[in-house]
Amino acid sequence: MSNPIIINPKHIAIIMDGNGRWAKAKGLPRAFGHKKGMDCVRLTVEACSEKNIEALTLFAFSTENWNRPEEEVGYLMKLFLIMMKSEAQKLNKNNVKLRVIGDRNRFSDKLKKAMLDAESLTKNNTGLSLNIAANYGGRMDITKATKVLCRRVAKGELNPENITEEILQAELALSDLPEPDLLIRTGGEKRVSNFLLWQLAYAEYYLIDSYWPDFDKQMLDKAIISFSLRQRRFGKIL
Ligand code: FPP
Fold first, then answer.
1. What share of the chain is helix, strand, coil (3-state, %, to 5)?
2. Are 54 and 177 a contacting pair, CB within 8 Å?
3. Is the pTM higher than 0.85?
4. What is the rounded CA–CA span in Å between residue 96 and residue 132?
């Protein structure tokens, strides 16, 4: 029998969970889990580029993650800086377009500048769109978009009766990209944790028990095969 044709998702979103538990299981500090998690980010970006996937969005830091110990938050900030500096140079060579979504106000000036520089360096690239969700929350995203529309209403530019899903969506993060059609979550939890709440409305979920630092290309392939076998009906009867 011939192999089934694999249909790649256009946009993969990933909740990279389990770094801390991975480290704990090995008797290591949590930072080691994040460090190894960064290696998995590299290999996932590489694999998605090779497969010509249009977009990859990674949940790297939620609006709730500030509640972690200062040392852990500090280490994650260090990894973000590495991502925006040395990694961005490599991503640029590989035609990857890097973008950060989320509220940057709480980041240091140095990190904010590095984010802008990395985005500007890679903005004309035509390969994989890599979006890093940092200090991101789905509810915050929708609230911000609502405020934009309210301001337009207040100025008399927009009639509330004319607000459509498309008009609201245009103000949300990633509105220029196809909606994520595959959501992968590692680490065994089965929830969306305030990730791309609006954008994931019709995504197929692929939930695995493995911790993020154990994620590899074979797991990505399995997720894509599973996606490819799903019958996507979008509420309709086929
Ligand atoms: C969730 O695992 C992971 C995070 C909060 C951080 C993710 C960061 C990385 C993978 C490395 C840096 C990435 C980039 C893009 C620069 P957890 O710590 O909540 O694990 P636990 O549930 O086992 O405690």
1. 45, 15, 40
2. yes
3. yes
4. 12
- 168 exposed, middle or buried (CB, 10 Å; 0-12, 13-18, 19+)? middle
**Residue range 169-210, pLDDT digits in tens:** 999 999 999 999 999 999 999 999 999 999 999 999 999 999
Q: At what angle do helices 109-122 and 70-82 cross, to 10 degrees?
A: 30
Strands (E), the chain: 11-15, 55-62, 97-101, 129-136, 182-185, 204-207
Nearest-10 Cα torsion for 150, 157, 196, 40: -120
* Rounded CA separation 116/227 (Å): 34
Which residue's alpha carbon is nearest to atom 7 within ligand 1? 60
Q: Could you give the CA distance from residue 130 to residue 123 in angstroms, rounded to a whole number?
A: 11
Question: What residues does ligand 1 touch, defined as CB less than 6 Å away?
Answer: 16-21, 34, 37-38, 41, 58, 60-61, 65, 76, 79-80, 83, 132, 187, 212
Whether residue 19 lies in the annotated active site: no
